[in-house]
Amino acid sequence: MSALESKTAYIFNRRVVQNFLDIIILKHLKSNSPTSGYDVIKFLHKRFHMLPSPGTVYSLLYSLERQNLIEGTDNRGKRLYTLTCDGERLLNQICGTKNHIQAIITSIFSEAQKQVL
Question: Which domains does the chain have, with CATH numbers?
Answer without folding.
Answer: 3-116 (1.10.10.10)
